[in-house]
Amino acid sequence: MTGLLNKLSARGYKITPQRRIILQVLSDSDKHLSAEEIADKVKQIEPGISVATVYRNLNLLAEIGILSRLNLHEGPARYELNQGHNHHLVCLGCGNAIKLGVCPMQGEIKKIIEESGFEVDSHHFEITGYCQKCQARQKL
Amino acid sequence: MTGLLNKLSARGYKITPQRRIILQVLSDSDKHLSAEEIADKVKQIEPGISVATVYRNLNLLAEIGILSRLNLHEGPARYELNQGHNHHLVCLGCGNAIKLGVCPMQGEIKKIIEESGFEVDSHHFEITGYCQKCQARQKL
DNA sequence: ATAGCAGTTGATAATAATTATTATTTAGGA
DNA sequence: TCCTAAATAATAATTATTATCAACTGCTAT
User: Fold this and answer.
1) Nearest in space to B126 (alpha carbons), one of A133, A118, A124, A26
2) What pTM value is reported for the model?
């Protein structure tokens, strides 16, 4: 948490109470939150904070790599603190994101892409479905 | 092309001139087109066609599997005629999508997911970057 | 052929998610 | 403490898409 704030000021960005709260909310959650969900939680702590501020800072934080934006197949984008490179199993029931320990950009796939001469900028691997808890819940 | 039309009528959907034109546009392009781009091309052929009709039909066609919607990391969704399950190298320069012959949902990754008890609904693997042509263009 | 009707369309309003604008405020260095 | 660039709140604007609804049209059965 302090590390995150340092990252901000190291780049010349100011540490504002709004940014503290946004980061607070993000680090308190283990889910992928949408901008709206983040804004709601932020407002529970400090009602005066504007949605625009939340969006602005989510963009900034994503840009400097503090968090990452996940564009799901449907619905709004979701955000999480960036804990290194990761892919996730995203549950459509509860929104929870289970870390997948592996990345498809390796082995055969990596080789094929390299051989094609394509210059990779970024990649996304997203699996949606239902976690065990939500599978059980559906059967009730 | 005729096959696509048959697929429509087989399911009880009508073959309208609008749908013919939309499918025409899609089969004439090898790129992933956005709804707006599709609508533009459609209007070049028949100016009276409404954007709403384009969206409505893109949804329908995607639903019945004639085409697939690709939610890129940024910008609007893009569509292409569905030629089986595929992943792509999407060029940020020219928008072209190069088919990647492989799918990451196999082997080790598939096993890990199965063992986690997660029930997969869908998956997306998207690689963005620059194709060889656009790399060359950038160096000019 | 043609009548009928479900399916479809065009026009447009509405919505959802996000970004831009702008006047005001503030964090952090001099 | 003062100053200034950066940041904020409020809100308008934008972008992408979906909903609404009256009018129209493929298709099927007569």
Assistant:
1) A124
2) 0.72
